[in-house]
Amino acid sequence: MKSTTLLWGLATIIVGCSVPEAKADAWKVVPSIAVQQKYSDNIFFDAENTESDFISTVSPALEFSERTERLTASFKAQLDSLTYLDNSYLNATDQNYRGSLRYAVTPKANVFTSAGFRKDSQVDRDLGETGLLQGDATRKNYTYEAGGDYALSEAMGIRMAFNGLQDDYDDPTEYDLESQGVSVILSRDLSAFMRATTGRLSGSYNQYDQTKEQSFFGGIVSSESTYNVKNYSGSIGAERQWDEKFTLFADAGWRYTDSTQEFTQVNSFFSPPLVFAETQESNGSGFTGQFGGSYRGETTNATLSLSQEVSAASGTTGATDRTIFRGTVGRKLTEKARFDVMAEYYINTSVQDEVRAGSNVDEKTLRFNPRLGYQFNQDFWLEAAYLFEQVDDQVDDTVSERNMVWCRLVYQYPLFE
User: Fold this and answer.
1) Residue 133 domain flag
2) CATH number of the structural domain spanning residue 293
3) 204 pLDDT more than 50
4) CA–CA separation, 177 vs 209, rounded Å?
5) What residues make up the domain containing 293?
6) Which of 20, 45, 238, 291 is 20 to 30 A from 394, comparing alpha carbons?
7) Is residue 331 in a domain?
8) Res 54 pLDDT > 60
9) What is d(CA 358, CA 339) in angstroms, rounded to the nearest whole number?
């Protein structure tokens, strides 16, 4: 994926946000600012040399959104300026831009697209998504998605989407990541056979390319290492609205993974240059799926899920088999106060039978995050939170732990509502 694809995607979304239709239901411009003070007892997430620090973060943001009878569009830009009290060399300004657009072409057909750009450098930037730690190298992350859905009948619909991701690191020792994928979901209302139930068939293809280029001895010796992972998967599942409060879902399927690792080294000291090349190929298959449910009451909501997948994570090489247990509970304490708690457990392991030369990953990650929020009004709110994280690295035989507490104040000022 090229970064120009992202720029075109963001430009399309911004244009969609900036040209209101005559029958617009909502056109909003919302600037905001968030101020956060955080304490971490292990800023590097190191198993042995723990170092604590206070981190102040100021996050100005600007959001555009529009909603009409046929169009829903939004775009948000945010900067996160991080200042460390004792480790000022870690000070950084992260950037995050995200836009999405959905348009009803006909009463039966919709098209959608989204694109994003993020520049970050925090070691825990992907911990809440993959359960894996990163280095502190600056990364430019590009994402995009485009697709559509169509109602084949009153009971059946189809959805197709294309997606891409690109991670570029400023550190030559890190592997850059590029991925593309396509997914198709066919859904059908099964209420005639089972009350309030929707069945679905899904299939997907994802390709991941990880590349690292290095040079040594003033460029005399250069090397390129590439990992290519192709993953095919299919599943069958259903979702049932048990009653007004409970929803259950389950998907089960199979995946096939094909992997290739290529290494090339060129020594220009000799004439002609001395070239060494090696290629390894492997493949395998396994289970994929997700199970869970949700509860939504007047004052309490909760979710519980278990998922199993194979993907290539940024900062690693080869395929990673990932199992995720996740649970959340939220409760409205008063009209203005709310309490939420989240718990996650990740199991990440290398698919050794499929990628023999990739990163040897065997990690178990635990995250526990209670939060208390108070909303002074619809534009001004306060949050206090605690986060415990533990990473058990079976390969290095180390256990890293971290405790963090923070207080965050957010104020927004809607314009042109």
Assistant:
1) yes
2) 2.40.170
3) yes
4) 6
5) 3-412
6) 291
7) yes
8) yes
9) 42
